[in-house]
Amino acid sequence: MANLIRLTYVSKATFDCSLGEGSVGSDELVQEVQDILAEARKNNQKSQVSGALFFGEGYFFQCLEGKPSLVLPLVEKIKTDPRHEGFKISYQKAVPRRYFSGWSMKYVPVTPDVINLMKSRGYPEFDPVNFHESDINEMFEMFTKVDDTSLLNERLREYSSIIKPWWQRFGELFLPRTRQI
Predict the structure, then answer these.
(1) Which end of the chain, N or C, is surrounded by fewer C-beta atoms within 10 Å?
(2) Which residues contact 11 (CB under 8 A, 6 or more apart)?
(3) Residue 6 forms beta bridges with which residues?
(4) Residue 68: partners with Cβ closer than 8 Å, 6 or more residues away
(5) Starting from the edge strand earliest in sequence, which strands make up the sheet with 106-108, in order?
(6) Structural domain contains residue 62
């Protein structure tokens, strides 16, 4: 079994997110969320941490996956970020596999699917602070199926590439390449 954990936290934005929040009908992300995504994608790719970020109703709902020795110090760093407050770890488990193995940090926008899931679970709005474990797991499942609209933004596309297993990276570095004709 792989030595992996999946950790999810929720927090509330400290910046003005009234415009371009990524709400239904909005394709724009506020600059702070763009900055967070760009930084997460760059750093997570280097450290082999994967995950997903959802931002809606002024809340961050982020899942991080990887080796505990990498994820836990990262979470301690994230806690101190002044762009959010009310940090709460809502889920932490050892897991045999990653949900988001192909993403250094997938962005999940507010979609009708998210809204419908919230309503079906009895939430009148997105309220991750009160999520139960079953709500979190269902969100994870849905997140794996939702398109990442942030890839339309060239700056955010730069570090979104798939985290490749070590054996694929090794092969790319040391195995001879076939010639294209």
Answers:
(1) C
(2) 59, 60, 84, 85, 86, 87, 88
(3) 65, 93
(4) 3, 4, 5
(5) 84-95, 4-13, 59-66, 50-56, 106-108
(6) yes
Cα gap 174→102, rounded to integer Å = 22
Q: What is the pLDDT of residues 28-75, one digit of tens each?
A: 577 888 888 888 988 888 888 999 999 888 899 999 999 999 999 999
Contact at 8 Å (CB) between 86 and 129?
yes
Q: Decide if 90 is inside a domain.
A: yes
Query: Could you give the number of structural domains in the chain?
Result: 1
37 occurs within a structural domain: yes
Query: The domain spanning residue 170 has which CATH number?
Result: 3.30.70.100
In the chain, the DSSP E strands lie at 4-13, 50-56, 59-66, 84-95, 106-108
Measured distance CA(176)–CA(179) in Å, rounded: 9
Q: Give residue 58's domain range.
A: 4-174
What does the pLDDT look like over 130-162, one tens digit per residue? 899 999 999 989 888 887 766 665 555 655 554
The per-residue b/e assignment along 92-109, b for 16 or more CB within 10 angstroms, e otherwise, is: eeeeeebbbeebbbbbbb
